[in-house]
Structure formats: C-alpha cells, structure tokens
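Box 4.2: Ligand-aware structure prediction
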Amino acid sequence: MKRLSFGLLITTMLFSLVSCGNGSGGPSETVSNGTSETSNGIAITDQTEETDKTDEMEMQGGEEIMESREFNFVTKTVTLNSGYEMPLMGLGTYSLNYDTCISSVTIFLDNGGRLIDTAYMYHNEDAVGTAVRASDVPREEIFVTTKLYPNQYSDAANAIDDALEKMGLEYIDLMLLHHPGKDDVKAYQAMEQAVADGKIRSIGLSNWYIEELETFLPQVTIMPAVVQNEIHPYYQEIDIVPYIQELGIVVEGWYPFGGRGYTKELLGDETISAIADAHGVTSAQVILRWNLQRGVVVIPGSSNPDHIAENLDIFDFELTEDEMEQIKNLNRDEKHDWY
Ligand SMILES: NC(=O)c1ccc[n+]([C@@H]2O[C@H](COP(=O)([O-])OP(=O)(O)OC[C@H]3O[C@@H](n4cnc5c(N)ncnc54)[C@H](OP(=O)(O)O)[C@@H]3O)[C@@H](O)[C@H]2O)c1
C-alpha cells in the first residue's frame, strides 16, 4: 500500500466531500473540513487523492500524524502512523490449512479484498505468500500482516527473515508481536531494526491492553502502528479501544464473530438480527460495519466464498447512532480466548 503525503492528505481533507460508500453522506454529522464523525467521535474522511511515497513525512508518532488516523470509507483504508495505508476490511487466516488458505486468499483478492492476516503460529504464512505472489493484483496493493510468537522473541531477527523467506515476499506490510512474553521488548527492537532495513513497513502489537502498553511503550522507539485485540459485540473493550486510538494507534479486532464455536450465538443475536433486517443485510455485515464505525479494522476468518464476498460488502449501508448504541449495550465483557 502507498504511503501518503501528509500535506496533501490535509489539503484533500479540506476540500473533500464526506461520503460513506454509496455517496449518501457520512455515518452522521458532517463538519466543515470534510470530515464526519461517527456516534462515538471517530472521524471518517473522504480522501480521494494520493501521492507517491514521500521521504518528507514524519514516520512515527507526533501531533500531525495523530490527525491522520481517520477511516476513509471511499478508499476503504486508514493511514497508519508509519505513513502507510492499511485496508479496513481484511481476511483472517487462522485455522486455514495450506490449500484452503490459498483458495480463500485468492477468492478474497479476486473480490477486491486487500488485507490479509496470518501469523507464524497459523502455519500458513507460506500459503499466504504463494497466493499473494500468484495473484494478478500488484504486490504493492496488497497488505500482508504476520506475527511473531513468543517462542520466537529471543531470536526475532532470524524469525523475521524466516517469515520473509516462507512467504517469498520482499517485505512484510505489518508485523505484530502475538502477545506479551519473555523478551518481547527485544523482539520489538528487532522489528524496529527490520523497519530500518526495509524488511517490514509497519510494526505493532497484539493482545496488549492499557497496563501492558503503559509498561511497554517507554521501552521502545517506534510507536506501534496497530494493536490487534479480541473485539466483538460481547467483548467490546469499551475503555481500551479509545485509549489505544488516542495514542494515534489503529485498533484491529480479531474474532469479530466471536471465534469458532461462538459464531452461532453472536450471528443469531436478536438485536443484531433485527438491525440486519432493517438494513437488508446479514448479521455478519452488521457486526463488521459496527466495528468500522467505532474505528476498528476487521479481519473476519472465512473459507466460504459467499461469506468472503459478503464480508467485503459493508460499505453501502450505515448504522444509526441508536443502532450503534443498541450493539454497545450487548457488551458482556465475555472474552472467548485467553490472550
Ligand atoms: N492476534 C490474535 O491473538 C488472534 C487470535 C485469533 C484470531 N486472530 C485473527 O483474527 C481472525 C478472525 O478470527 P477467527 O477467524 O478465528 O474467527 P471469526 O472471524 O470470529 O469467525 C470465523 C468463523 O465465522 C464464520 N464466518 C465468516 N464469515 C461469515 C459470514 N459472513 N456468515 C456466517 N459465518 C461467517 C467462518 O466460517 P466460514 O469459513 O464457513 O465462513 C468461521 O467459522 C483470524 O482468522 C486471525 O487472522 C488473531
């Protein structure tokens, strides 16, 4: 994905119209600089122009960069604090074996999807790389995320090289630490070095919460671009999401449908089903859209071609403030995994 010129981004924001996929206006109120706000204050911008990569842009942190964490519902991307654009809707590949992973990623890319989430622990980085390399979609339009697992932290530099080799890619768009563990600072520093070496474009964390971030951030140089945590209507991280966003970090949610074994209850939830009926969409689409409207990137897992296409089709409807509130009220702080 391209890096944006911050100056042009701001200029474009000033002159752009607010839109929300179908051109029917932003999710809620429009303010004068071409930015609209969702019910919980997440800014959504229509930014229609891009430039080539610029060296002038400040790479990490800083006030200017903080302003660019806006979800653009036209390009369907967000600009990270690293300066790179990340798509808002991705494909999770957890539990997909080699062949299934290749076919799922291929279908996803063919349907316009551009963000793919894998990890060392999923044992399918090679399949993701194979599908990306085989695709007609240019590499620079695809955003590949992978993660180091704690058993790799003590020798992270080699683990990064292994990931690149397994995927057969020249660079990784985003690498995360899977969850806190021994030598996590050392591993993060290895990722910082890999950024300097051009092996990784953006780095971040997964399963880091407020206390963990407070301890971790003072020990590292590059502000994480993304924090990826469990997020679904029954586990919303109501305090944690805004805390991370206020640091200028993009929040990405895993288990959007609750994870395998829980999807039936969540997708069958009466409140969510009623909202889906009102919009003529599915419960899955409502859940994904709810995430986007609160500023959370989504990576639903699927190997079903119909589901993959359905999950990408979430940019032509908009939840009302009342519907966002109804879903917020479903929160039970019910975590479905231990990280
Ligand atoms: N960082 C971490 O610690 C962490 C942990 C767990 C997961 N993750 C990431 O997050 C991703 C998402 O999690 P997940 O895949 O485990 O769980 P999930 O996305 O909550 O749920 C996946 C399940 O939902 C079904 N599904 C997908 N789209 C659907 C639709 N439109 N309608 C009905 N059912 C649908 C899938 O079945 P079908 O295949 O039949 O569509 C699959 O059984 C993972 O793939 C992984 O990339 C990260």
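In the box above, the bound molecule is NAP. The longest strand covers residues 200-206.
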